[in-house]
User: Which sequence fits this backbone?
């Protein structure tokens, strides 16, 4: 994939969105990755979309390895099922709800427990059909009155939601523990260190959910961290307590701020009992299925990576999610230089490398600044000054290196 | 990718949706590819989603080869831009429109001329920035009062919409002709023969759009075809005329019925003039950009393929879009047979083949019927009867073949 910056719809600009001070809102828009269409509504330009797809594929790879099954449910939700669980009214504050032209009620989903439970019910008869886990990567909507923090909190966003179905609490707990590890792998592959945080999540026990928090001053969540036993807790678990102590070891807690990039919940039989998702156990008795639910904010991850990985010149993309491995520029018009550049581009394309080629008619200074702003892992400069060699520089290094064409390709192939 | 039918959320069933007689509605649901959630709302189970993704990737490959740039716009649309073009009111009959909790007006997009024109305007200054084409593959909504024909006409559906931007009508026309060919390639790769049909599309000339029709009795469109010059016309072009003649050669016209799988439009400067999408020409004068628009119904293609490619036993998937290349079953429990099956599955997985493995505890007859219903290109049977060889059968053949393991893999690798 070769992205040419000339005639490109994702052009960079000097300014970010007004009234959006967060680094991700500013840098993603300045670099032409996204465009703020309206409050909480972001459009994805080619680079932004390329990062989203790489994040999605990291998630897919990890979940498919666990034999999770990918599905796609609808965002348009008739009232029916949601009324059965009481969530049509409960969600009224955050769910867009409206009538179609014939007067029927619809909402836009922000989560899918109801439809997935109905879908699973069709596939489950006996305990032999369990366990399984299904997920989707889908656009969700939320009627946010105070959308902010760029793509971190939007009115329309991309989420991965997964739901698991089990015949016993023990089987569920095993899977929940595996998913906890898989989640940390996924964030790690996206270049993020995450903290598993105990959190309240419902009605049937104090701690029945976990959040995955990436520490960042741009976050909205307060986390209390125990230096002694390394456990972390959502501040909300402690109500109005002034100086809460660690719930596990009683140690002192340190307050940190994080961005919640994922969460996992024990649902128990809440939805399965209400919606008739049952299995026949080995004694021939009907039982409601035990469920878990597992979310990752895909577009939110894009913003989080920018929050934790940038400097004053621009973004710094981890190779795993960068829209391309290198930014290429040709800094002279003589025939030898152009020929070397063409050779490089042709061979890079052959080996499947994704590159950004700055073929705009602008100065070297503008191109160098653009490369820093976009923050791809490498910058490659072909210039007549370098006498047949090619200059390569890591975004995170200050030094450049002069190497021959074969070595540039070798370096880029390792990183992509 | 190995899909195991045991513990699978996409189980087949004996019945299709009530009141949906079309082949795609019946077969896709019976085979567990989709689930009709409500009128015009279909959920995609793993096989249905796998086909959608293959169709999407065929489209992407063809458009990327033309240097089209992929973006992603929002489905939630504030009223603002749509009011400027007059389409907020024009679309009121088919666009879901509602207010958020603060009273602001939003609609759910079914097309994106307004936002893409605004997005392009930011990237365009001079004629040197033109031409380019951007596209997205996105979920759209339409308030259909009579949703029918399975996934062919839905209230929520997946569409590829592309928009091109040009400095001259001549440049636009060249691109439009190229896109016409690319569209036919795309449908061909999906296993469909399409007819290019001249159609009315707007206000500034009689024929200013083209439809791509796949002939099928399940279609809703009447097409008049000229046997003499091979041109085809949408019936609507002729108003109330009783016996219309070919608009090109005056020949007799034959009526045919088709499913519209794509359409392309000349937009001229309609949107660019209203929304200020201008370029500076070589004389330094401001001009509105000339635009084209190009749609493909992605989920509709899924249904169309089933309409034209099935028999009384089930679906018949072209290899290019089949969710997997073969359905595998093991018809005995003895150790040698099981070992051979394991060898086959392991080697197939290694070479990246996608397979459906019917590991359910059901009879051979049920498994064979399932394979016909799902309609993958090949059926592979490992049975002790076959003394170390493996039985392979094409879905479209009646004969089976006994070959060794290496040959089965070779056959499947060619087709996938």
Assistant:
């Amino acid at each position: 994939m070769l992205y040419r910056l000339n005639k490109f719809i994702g052009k960079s600009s000097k300014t970010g969105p007004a009234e959006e001070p967060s680094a991700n809102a500013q840098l993603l828009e300045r670099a032409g990755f996204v465009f703020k269409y309206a409050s909480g509504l972001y459009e994805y330009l080619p680079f932004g979309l390329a990062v989203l797809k790489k994040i999605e594929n990291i998630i897919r790879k990890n979940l498919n390895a666990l034999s999770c099954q990918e599905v796609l449910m609808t965002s348009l939700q008739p009232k029916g099922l949601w009324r059965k669980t009481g969530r049509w009214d409960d969600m009224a504050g955050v769910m867009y709800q409206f009538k179609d032209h014939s007067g029927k009620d619809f909402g836009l989903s922000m989560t899918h427990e109801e439809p997935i439970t109905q879908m699973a019910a069709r596939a489950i008869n006996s305990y032999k059909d369990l366990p399984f886990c299904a997920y989707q990567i889908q656009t969700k909507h939320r009627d946010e009155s105070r959308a902010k923090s760029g793509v971190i909190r939007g009115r329309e966003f991309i989420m991965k939601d997964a739901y698991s179905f089990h015949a016993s609490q023990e089987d569920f707990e095993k899977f929940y523990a595996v998913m906890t590890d898989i989640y940390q792998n996924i964030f790690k592959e996206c270049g993020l260190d995450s903290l598993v945080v105990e959190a309240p999540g419902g009605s049937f026990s104090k701690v029945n959910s976990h959040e995955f928090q990436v520490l960042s001053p741009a976050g909205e969540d307060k986390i209390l961290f125990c230096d002694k036993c390394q456990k972390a807790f959502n501040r909300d678990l402690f109500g109005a307590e002034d100086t809460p102590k660690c719930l596990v070891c009683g140690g002192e807690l340190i307050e940190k701020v994080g961005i919640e990039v994922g969460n996992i919940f024990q649902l128990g039989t809440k939805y399965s009992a209400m919606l008739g998702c049952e299995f026949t156990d080995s004694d021939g008795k009907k039982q409601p299925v035990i469920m878990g639910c597992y979310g990752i904010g895909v577009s939110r991850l894009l913003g989080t990576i920018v929050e934790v990985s940038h400097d004053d010149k621009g973004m710094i993309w981890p190779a795993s999610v960068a829209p391309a491995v290198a930014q290429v520029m040709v800094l002279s018009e003589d025939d030898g230089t152009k020929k070397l550049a063409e050779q490089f581009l042709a061979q890079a394309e052959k080996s499947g490398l994704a590159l950004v080629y700055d073929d705009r008619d602008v100065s070297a200074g503008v191109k160098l600044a653009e490369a820093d702003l976009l923050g791809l892992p490498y910058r490659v400069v072909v210039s007549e000054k370098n006498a047949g060699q090619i200059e390569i520089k890591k975004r995170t290094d200050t030094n450049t290196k002069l190497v021959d064409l074969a070595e540039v390709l070798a370096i880029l192939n390792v990183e992509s």
In short: Chain B has two domains: 10-73+109-311, 326-415. The CA atoms of residues 78 and 106 of chain B lie 4 Å apart. Chain B has a mean pLDDT of 95.
